[in-house]
Design goal:
Elements (H helix, E strand, L loop, with lengths): L1 H10 L11 E5 L2 E5 L1 H11 L16 H15 L10 H29 L8 H11 L1 H29 L5 H21 L1 H15 L10 E6 L5 H8 L17 E7 L2 E7 L13 H12 L3 E7 L8 H10 L9 E6 L11 H16 L15 E3 L8 H22 L4 H4 L3 E3 L15 H12 L6 H7 L29 E2 L2 E2 L8 H24 L7 H27 L18 H10 L5 H11 L4 H9 L5 H11 L22 H14 L1 H5 L16 H4 L12
Parallel strand pairs: 3-5, 3-6, 6-7, 7-8
Antiparallel strand pairs: 1-2, 2-9, 4-5, 10-11
C-alpha cells in the first residue's frame, strides 16, 4: 500500500492522457506499470471539483428600469399599426401578441435572476454559511421568493387577459384590455423594487468575494489579530495583503497561491479571532470561524511569543482551546512567530507549559479521533516573518502534512478498490554484490576544479552589498576614465572657473591654438608700433590738415558701411501699391538712367504697358503701328497675350527647369501621378490627408420597428 500511495503522489504531478498506451514510471526505486486511461478516469472521479464564480451574475435593474426595458422591447419588436377597419380577429391577435410578448420578456428576465443567484442549499456548505454570515440567508431567500412570486403573478395576469381578449368586440375594448394587462404587470414589478435593489447590492458584494475552491489543497492561517498572519501570506505567495501595526487590519478572507513539488496550493488569510463567546463574535470573526469549520485544509495556528501583538501567551492558549474542536481531522501546526524579538527558549516556565499543552493537542489531530500520534511529526515550528527565518520550513511542513493526509483519505475510500487492480508495483532486486558508483569523466572533474580555482570577478552588485546595500552605496563612474595617471580619476573637476564655464574651453588642441593666438597678437602689436612711429610733428600745417580730413572721411565711410551692412539685407522692398508718396515714379527712373548715359524710353514704355489695362478697341490701333519685322511680331504677340493668363505648354513638351531628363520621362511621371490619385478620386477623398470613414448605414435610417412578417433580428 505504501508503494501505491507513492504512485498517487506521482500522478499528482502530471496530467494523464487517455490516448497514450500503458507506460512504465520510475519513482523512488519502484517500477510502476499502469494504464494511463485508467488513471485518468480514476482522478476524474476523485477530483471532481466545483468552481464558484459569482462575478458572472448579471446586473439586476431597479423596478423602474425593469419596466422601461421590457416595454421598450415590446414596442420595438411587435407591430404598432392597427386600424379599426381590420377584421375583429386580426385586432384581437394584434393585442394578444403584445400581452404575450410582454409576459414572455418579464418571465425571461425574472427567471435569469432566480437561476443565476446561487441556492444556499445546493452550493458548498462553506459558501452557504459565508453568505449567511454576510447577508442573512433569511432575507436572501425572502428576496428570491418575492421574485419568483412576481414571475408567477405576471404569468397568471397574462393568461387571464388573453382569455378576455378572445372575446373583445371592438378595437377600443381590446386596446383597453391590453393597457390594463400591461399596467398590472408593471405594478407587480414595481412592488418588488426593494427586493431587486437588495439583490443587486448582494451581487456587487459577492463579485468582490475571493475565488476560493473548497475542494483543492488549502492552507488556512488563523490566530489572534496582529500576530503576523498577513505578513506570512505575503512572504510565501504573490498576494498583497495590507499589513499595519494595529489589530483587525484584515477584515475579510484573502487568498494567495503557492507551489510545492509541482502542485498548486491555496493559502487563505483569515481575520483575527478573539477569545469570547460564540454569540458575541462579529461578522469579521465569523468569516474565520466559517472557513475553519467547512474547509478541508492544513491549519496554521499563529502564536506571538513576544507579546507585541497586545495579547499574552495565556490568552492565545485560551483561544486555541476554545476553537480546537474546529481542528479535528485536519493537519494542525502551531507556529511560534516573531522569534527575532523573543526566542522560544527565553519565555517563562508557565508559558512553556501552555505551549507544550497546545503541542500535545496538536499531536492528537494527526490521527483524528483516538489512536497514538506518529513519531517525528512537526507540529510546533518557530519562525520570524521579519528576518524570513523559518518561513519556507513552515510552508514545506504544512504542504507535506496536507499532501500525506489527502493521500491517506483517498486510500481509505471505497473508490480506490476499483483502481487498485490496475496498478502493479515492482521492486527491483540487486543481481550481484558489485558496487556500481557513478562514472564521471576525468575531463569533467578537471574542468570543475579549474572553475573552483578561478577567482570570481567582483560585480557592482557585490560591491553594493559590501558597502551598505541599495540606497547607501553609490556607484562611481570615474573609475572607468582613461587617464595618464590613475590617481587623477577621483579628482574634483571644477565646472565654473573665474565666471566662465570650463566645458566651453575644453579642446584637445588648446595648447596649439594658444600658441597661434599669441603669435597673432605679437604681429598686431608690431603693426601698431609701426603706425605710432610715424611722427606727425614732421608734417607741415597743410599736410596735417589734409591728414585730419582723410581720417575723418575714412571714419564716416566705415560708419556708413556698417549701417548699410546691418540693414540692407533685411530692408523690405516696398510694393508699388504701397508707394503712396509717389517716390518710385517712371520720371525718376528716367532721370537716373539718363544720368548713367542710357536711353530710358523703352524701359518707360514697358513700365507703362504693364501698369495700364488693355482694352479690345485699343488693340486694333496698336496693331497698325507695329512693324512687320520678326522682333516686332514677337513683341506684339507678347503684349497681346498679357491681358489673359499664360498658356501652359503641352504635357509632352520638355520645359527647362522642370527637372526631367527628357519628354518620355515627363510623360511617364504624369501618367504615374494620374494613376496614384485614381483610387482617391474614386473614394471621393479630398486629398491624401482625408481619413474620414463614412457611415454607410446611419443608425437613424436602418434601425426601428420591424414590419409584419419579419422574424429576423438585426
Amino acid at each position: 500500500m505504501k508503494g501505491v500511495a507513492s504512485v498517487l503522489k506521482v500522478f499528482k504531478v502530471f496530467q494523464p492522457c487517455t490516448q497514450l498506451p500503458p507506460v512504465v514510471l520510475i519513482h523512488s526505486q519502484h517500477l510502476i506499470y499502469c494504464n494511463l486511461s485508467a488513471v485518468s478516469e480514476f482522478w476524474h472521479k476523485l477530483s471532481n471539483m466545483v468552481q464558484y464564480n459569482f462575478k458572472k451574475i448579471t446586473k439586476v435593474p431597479t423596478g423602474k428600469d425593469f419596466v422601461d426595458i421590457v416595454l421598450s422591447r415590446t414596442q420595438r419588436q411587435t407591430p404598432t399599426v392597427v386600424h379599426k377597419g381590420y377584421a375583429i380577429n386580426r385586432i384581437r391577435q394584434f393585442y394578444m401578441r403584445k400581452v404575450k410578448f410582454t409576459q414572455t420578456n418579464f418571465h425571461e428576465k425574472l427567471s435569469t435572476i432566480i437561476e443565476e443567484f446561487p441556492r444556499l442549499d445546493d452550493i458548498h456548505p462553506f459558501y452557504g454559511d459565508l453568505l449567511h454570515v454576510l447577508y442573512n440567508k433569511d432575507h436572501y431567500k425572502l428576496a428570491l421568493g418575492q421574485i419568483n412570486t412576481a414571475r408567477n403573478l405576471i404569468s397568471k395576469i397574462a393568461k387571464d387577459y388573453v382569455k378576455l381578449l378572445k372575446y373583445g368586440d371592438s378595437l377600443y375594448r381590446c386596446k383597453a384590455l391590453k393597457v390594463a394587462a400591461l399596467g398590472r404587470m408593471c405594478t407587480v414589478t414595481k412592488r418588488i423594487g426593494p427586493s431587486l435593489a437588495y439583490l443587486d447590492q448582494i451581487r456587487q458584494h459577492m463579485a468582490r468575494l475571493p475565488s476560493i475552491d473548497p475542494n483543492t489543497r488549502t492552507i488556512l492561517i488563523c490566530g489572534y489579530p496582529n500576530v503576523g498572519k498577513s505578513s506570512f501570506i505575503n512572504k510565501i505567495t504573490r498576494a498583497d495583503v495590507d499589513v499595519q501595526p494595529y489589530a483587525f487590519t484584515t477584515k475579510s478572507l484573502f487568498v494567495g497561491h503557492t507551489d510545492y513539488k509541482y502542485l498548486r496550493y491555496q493559502v487563505i488569510d483569515t481575520p483575527g479571532i478573539l477569545d469570547r463567546p460564540f454569540e458575541d463574535r462579529n461578522i469579521i470573526e465569523m468569516c474565520s470561524i466559517t472557513a475553519l469549520a467547512h474547509l478541508r485544509a492544513a491549519v496554521l495556528f499563529f502564536l506571538d511569543i513576544s507579546g507585541s501583538c497586545g495579547y499574552t501567551i495565556s490568552q492565545q492558549s485560551a483561544l486555541f482551546h476554545s476553537i480546537k474542536s474546529l481542528f479535528m481531522n485536519k493537519p494542525l501546526i502551531i507556529v511560534c512567530n516573531k522569534t527575532d524579538l523573543q526566542s522560544l527558549e527565553g519565555i517563562s516556565e508557565d508559558d512553556k507549559k501552555l505551549v507544550e499543552e497546545m503541542k500535545s493537542e496538536a499531536m492528537k489531530t494527526l490521527i483524528g479521533q483516538g489512536g497514538e500520534p506518529r513519531e517525528g511529526a512537526e507540529v510546533l515550528l518557530t519562525m520570524s516573518t521579519l528576518t524570513e527565518q523559518g518561513v519556507i520550513a513552515v510552508k514545506n511542513a504544512a504542504c507535506e502534512r496536507l499532501l500525506d493526509q489527502r493521500v491517506e483519505v483517498k486510500m481509505k475510500s471505497k473508490k480506490i478498490n476499483d483502481c487498485l487492480n490496475r496498478f502493479h508495483v515492482a521492486v527491483p532486486k540487486p543481481r550481484d554484490q558489485k558496487e556500481r558508483p557513478a562514472c564521471i569523466p576525468q575531463a569533467v572533474l578537471e574542468a570543475k576544479a579549474k572553475e573552483a580555482e578561478k577567482e570570481k570577478k567582483k560585480l557592482e552588485r557585490d560591491l553594493e552589498e559590501e558597502n551598505g546595500g541599495a540606497g547607501v552605496y553609490s556607484a562611481s563612474l570615474k573609475k572607468h576614465y582613461l587617464l595618464a595617471n590613475d590617481e587623477w580619476k577621483e579628482d574634483n573637476m571644477p565646472e565654473i572657473l573665474d565666471g566662465h564655464n570650463v566645458y566651453d574651453f575644453v579642446d584637445p588642441d588648446i595648447l596649439q591654438r594658444l600658441e597661434e593666438l599669441e603669435k597673432e597678437e605679437g604681429l598686431l602689436q608690431e603693426q601698431d608700433d609701426d603706425e605710432e612711429e610715424m611722427d606727425v610733428e614732421d608734417l607741415t600745417p597743410q599736410q596735417q590738415k589734409e591728414l585730419a580730413e582723410i581720417r575723418r572721411k575714412k571714419s564716416i565711410l566705415i560708419r556708413e558701411h556698417r549701417i548699410k551692412k546691418s540693414t540692407a539685407e533685411s530692408r523690405p522692398i516696398v510694393p508699388r501699391k504701397f508707394d503712396k508718396d509717389k517716390r518710385f515714379t517712371s520720371e525718376r527712373m528716367g532721370r537716373q538712367l539718363s544720368s548713367l548715359g542710357l536711353d530710358p524710353s523703352k524701359a518707360i514704355e514697358r513700365v507703362r504697358s504693364k501698369s495700364r489695362g488693355r482694352k479690345r478697341e485699343r488693340s486694333a490701333d496698336h496693331d497698325m503701328d507695329v512693324d512687320d519685322d520678326g522682333s516686332n511680331k514677337k513683341m506684339r504677340a507678347r503684349s497681346l497675350s498679357r491681358s489673359r493668363s499664360r498658356s501652359r505648354p503641352p504635357t509632352s513638351e520638355l520645359v527647362p527647369g522642370e527637372g526631367f531628363k527628357d519628354s518620355a520621362q515627363k510623360i511617364k511621371a504624369f501618367k504615374m501621378g494620374k494613376k496614384s490619385v485614381q483610387k482617391r478620386n474614386k473614394d471621393a477623398r479630398k486629398g491624401e490627408g482625408d481619413r474620414v470613414i463614412p457611415n454607410l448605414k446611419p443608425k437613424h435610417l436602418y434601425s426601428g420597428k420591424r414590419s409584419n412578417g419579419k422574424t429576423t433580428r438585426r
